[in-house]
Amino acid sequence: EVSKNANAFKTTSPKFSQIEQALGMWIGTAEQRQLILIGKVICQKALEFAALLGVSESDFKASDEAESALIEFLPQFREELKDFLKLYEPRDIFNADECGLFYCMEPNTSLLTSVRKDGTEKIKPLVINKSCMPLAFRYEEITLHNQLPVDYYHNEKAWMHQDIFK
């Protein structure tokens, strides 16, 4: 069922918090050393930590985000989504997509694009960076919010959050 409450969210605690903590510390150390981490390497390290902590392979499965989706529920979800979207006019439906820039690295810039379903309006792209004033603009007379063809925001992790999305 699709929630109509935009503020609804569910928080859960990790089932294997010791593995989560060990993996988090390991990732932090790897990032300080400027190592490039990919999903398979992180999964392998999680399995190693599980073994060190005495968690059996049958109890713990490491997977990256793409592997964790339950594909068998996808057709049912698509039908429910189609029924839900029938309640609205195409001009009232937007498709938005956020992505982090840089392949196999911790992104320091996020990009959000959005367009109406009927194609009549494209929203100005939104860029989120870690830097308040990117180095490329420091020596130019550019006012970020007035002269760029994008909306520009910054925060510590260059992530989209609720305040920006509003």
Automatic annotation (TrEMBL):
Gene Ontology molecular function, alphabetical: nucleic acid binding
Signal sequence annotation: none
Domain DDE-1: 116-165
Record-given protein name: 17513_t:CDS:1
